[in-house]
Amino acid sequence: MLTRIDHIGIACFDLDRTVEFYRATYGFEVFHSEVNEEQGVREAMLKINDTSDGGASYLQLLEPTRPDSTVAKWLDKNGEGVHHIAFGTADVDAEAAGIGEKGVRVLYEEPRRGSMGSRITFLHPKDCHGVLTELVTSAPVESPEH
Ligand code: V0V
Ligand code: CO
Q1: Domain ranges of the chain
Q2: What positions does the domain VOC occupy (predicted)?
Q3: What is the distance between the alpha carbons of residues 65 and 67, in angstroms, rounded to a whole number?
Q4: Closest C-alpha to ligand 1, atom 32
């Protein structure tokens, strides 16, 4: 089951300036930031709200780290803007398998590492009415030591 909008991915040329726009305009603060070399992005997660499934919804601001990355390619073609949406689920493997059986191309054989230790995969935008769609399972919440 897909149970939340986990994030909206927004491609930008300058992460620091874009973070500052979201802070100054809306008051959203950076919850987490990291570089994901595999995906070729530097990213900032701005938490917007908690969700009823125990997760949260974020804006994910993305700046490319190298010219051959998917986000750099997309920015060259489209300029800044909404790059993808991500649905949250407790079981990304099962969701990807089930959606794949419906004829939608799942881009990765196995989910890969996403923001904050999550596991992610993507659905091809051409099979999703033009929307690059990500599926996310958050990293398990660390239980306190006994
Ligand atoms: C490309 N297309 C898109 C698109 N990117 N359509 C909607 N939204 C997008 N973001 C269209 C493009 O306009 C072309 O249509 C067609 O798909 C083929 O695109 P292309 O430019 O030739 O590019 P490809 O085929 O080399 O790559 C497209 C795909 C690639 C979707 C396969 O971007 C990909 O693998 N994306 C998944 C990984 C990713 O995006 N990572 C960055 C976020 P026309 O012109 O032929 O009609 S990382 C992230 O979100 C993380 C870490 C996280 O959440 O934790
Ligand atoms: Co994403």
Answers
A1: 2-137
A2: 4-138
A3: 7
A4: 124
**pLDDT digit of tens for each residue in the chain (146 aa)?**
999 999 999 999 999 999 999 999 999 999 999 999 999 999 999 999 999 999 999 999 999 999 999 999 999 999 999 999 999 999 999 999 999 999 999 999 999 999 999 999 999 999 999 999 999 999 987 777 66
Where are the strands (E) in 1-55, listed by range?
Answer: 2-11, 30-36, 41-50
Q: Which of 43, 63, 83, 95 is labelled catalytic?
A: 43
CB 119 within 8 A of CB 136: yes
Known active-site residue 84: yes
| Active-site pick, 39, 60, 63, 83 | 60
Ligand 1 atom showing the smallest separation from residue 83 Cα: 10
Architecture of the structural domain at 2-137: Roll (3.10)
* Residues 33-45: b if buried by 16+ CB within 10 A, e if exposed: eeebeebbbbbbb
Q: Which amino acid is at 22?
A: Y
**Residue at token pair 């089951």:** 1
